[in-house]
């Protein structure tokens, strides 16, 4: 059962790689996932590659959602913070492959924001998500 109804008004044009709005079904619980970067459990980012960092951060977000009883399809909103939009654009093809490995063809409402820096000076990307978790078994 789908967690969301996708809202994509025609006058906004066809979205490519995101959804304009995600309307949660009634009866779900909202999960706010803190910004995740590519830091190791000890707390430091050691990977220097943008695509690798993206994959680690996205996997960490999905791990939190799974721990709450959901899956990638339950993510309704995602914000990507990057230190270089140009670097992100240049690697979009590779990032797409990493996306598919973790999210399949699910594209939540998204925003990409360029920032001057992140908490860890080695971090190139941080991802935060909001999910709605339903218990369809009860």
Write structural notes for this entry.
The chain has 138 residues and is of the alpha+beta class. It has helices at residues 50-67, 85-90, 92-103; strands spanning 4-7, 21-24, 29-36, 75-82, 109-114, 125-133. The protein has a single domain, classed as RutC-like (60s Ribosomal Protein L30, Chain: A, 2-Layer Sandwich). The chain has a four-stranded mixed beta sheet with strand order 3-6-4-5. Helix 1 (50-67) runs parallel beside helix 3 (92-103).
Write the layout of secondary structure elements.
Blueprint: E1 4-7, E2 21-24, E3 29-36, H1 50-67, E4 75-82, H2 85-90, H3 92-103, E5 109-114, E6 125-133
Parallel strand pairs: 4-5
Antiparallel strand pairs: 1-2, 3-6, 4-6
Helix pairs in contact: 1-3
Residues in helices, as a percent range? 25-40%
Distance between the termini: 14 Å
Q: How does the overall form come out from the CA principal axes?
A: globular
Structural category = alpha+beta
Q: Main β-sheet, in a few words?
A: 4 strands, mixed
What is the topology, as strand order, of the major beta sheet? 3-6-4-5
Roughly how many Å is the radius of gyration?
A: 15 Å
Unreliable segments of 5+ consecutive residues = none
The percent range for strand residues is 25-35%
**Helix tally?**
3
- CATH topology name: 60s Ribosomal Protein L30, Chain: A
- Strand elements, count: 6
> What's the assembly state of these chains?
single chain
What's the structural domain tally? 1
The string of secondary-structure elements, in order, is EEEHEHHEE
- CATH class, anyone? Alpha Beta
Corresponding CATH superfamily: RutC-like
What would you say the CATH architecture is? Answer: 2-Layer Sandwich
């Amino acid at each position: 059962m789908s967690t969301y109804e996708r809202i994509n008004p025609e006058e906004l044009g066809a979205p490519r790689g995101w959804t304009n709005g995600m309307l949660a079904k009634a009866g779900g619980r909202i999960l706010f996932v803190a910004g995740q970067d590519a830091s190791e459990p000890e707390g430091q980012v050691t990977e220097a590659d943008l695509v690798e960092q993206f994959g680690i951060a996205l996997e960490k977000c999905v791990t939190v959602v799974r721990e709450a009883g959901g899956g990638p399809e339950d993510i309704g909103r995602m914000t990507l913070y990057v230190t270089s939009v140009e670097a992100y654009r240049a690697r979009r093809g590779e990032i797409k492959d990493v996306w598919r490995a973790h999210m399949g063809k699910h594209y939540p409402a998204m925003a990409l924001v360029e920032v001057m820096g992140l908490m860890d000076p080695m971090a190139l990307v941080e991802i935060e998500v909001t999910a709605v978790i339903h218990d369809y078994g009860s």
